[in-house]
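Researcher: Here's a chain I'd like modeled. Treat it as a single chain, no partners, no ligands.
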Amino acid sequence: MERVLKLLDNEMSLVEKQFKHDLDSDVLLIRKVGEYVLASGGKRVRPMLVLLAARLTGYQGNQQIGVASVVEFIHTATLLHDDVVDSADLRRGEASANSVWGNEASVLVGDFLFSKSFSLMVRTGSLAILQALSDATTMMAEGEVLQLISTCELDLSEERYMQVVRDKTAVLIAAACKCGGVLSGVDAVQEQALNDFGMHLGIAFQFMDDALDYVADQAEFGKVCGHDLEEGKMTLPLIEALRHCTEEERDHVAAVVEKEQLSDEDLASVTALIHRYNGIDYTRTRAKELVARAKEYLEIFPDNEARRAMFVLADYVVSRSK
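Model: Modeled as a single isolated chain. Structure tokens:
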């Protein structure tokens, strides 16, 4: 991963500067909240994929900086909204914006970032990029609602859950890859290959988040362990465990997820069940399969530094511990 960061060091510095410039507002609170979320770190996977896809396809201009910034704008807006919906207290190991400034400010600043994103997209002058990113934001909203109505649904299938993940998380990663190719004017086949790479990588990314939620240390992962369970979210480790557990165990899970507040014993019992039926290992295996498939989509492109960096980034997704 260090090799990728070094390769993109100059461009990512420009993306960070562009993001701060685009965040400018006469309303001080907007700048404060936006800069707080930006400064909290994050992997910057989405803007890096824009830059790498542009390099992979031979782009020679400088619009990739603005597009990468817009993608991170959209992602930051979703983080602000997600933390309100999830009642999250932590984000990347720090107090979440909603716990610092309140839900109202987080929602409204998230709205500002979303609306500003569309203004910035128009400036690229590319209808194809506007189409790709506007379609992505629409699907992301649908994914959030689909996840909401799937809360505490013990019969949620892996296929239906993958639809939630595609819409909620993977679609923006796919759009980031696609936009890098659009800038270069690639043909439809290459554009679809970039999109498919990003979609598979995005699903794998979320699957790893699902696994880490049950095993990662809070100080390392940056959020409360078991938070998904507290929110009644049916993620892949639990879905896999419920496929194989006894009726008695299933009834116990049903009772736990319906609770308003979980005890340490509740969390420990469900986590033990997930481990007993290999829910974590299964989720990680599925993520690795998706990454392997994602790489295959890039085989139509030349074996160059950018493609190798995208492979490294893909491998990082399934090897990370936070």
